[in-house]
């Protein structure tokens, strides 16, 4: 099942509005404070969903979203580019299919 999920991510990432980046473990800890979802829109300001299993909230405009835009920049800087990410995911899927 995992190989199908990984291959589906590679397929989705070929769409022009979807970016998938992989940060290998060798690149160190993620420079973000925890899980969040960043939603950018063409005709509206971005919003951020921050949450865990205990609470969640949406942040809008200004400082509420700017620190998360900075975190995305830091994460992207550590991540492999799309071709490298797709290649790594494809190799991992193949490894799962062999086992």
Automatic annotation (TrEMBL):
Matches recorded under Pfam families: DUF5753
Q: Spell out the InterPro entries in the cross-references.
A: DUF5753
Ranges of residues in domain DUF5753: 1-90
Question: What name does the UniProt record give this protein?
Answer: DUF5753 domain-containing protein
Provide the species name.
Actinokineospora spheciospongiae
């Amino acid at each position: 099942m995992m190989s199908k999920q990984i291959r589906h991510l590679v397929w989705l990432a070929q769409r022009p509005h979807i970016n998938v980046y992989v940060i290998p473990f060798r690149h160190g800890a993620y420079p973000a404070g925890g899980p969040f979802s960043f939603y950018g829109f063409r005709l509206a300001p971005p919003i951020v969903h921050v949450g865990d299993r205990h609470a969640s909230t949406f942040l809008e405009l200004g400082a509420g979203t700017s620190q998360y835009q900075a975190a995305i920049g830091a994460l992207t800087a550590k991540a492999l580019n799309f071709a490298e990410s797709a290649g790594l995911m494809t190799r991992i899927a193949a490894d799962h299919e062999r086992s």
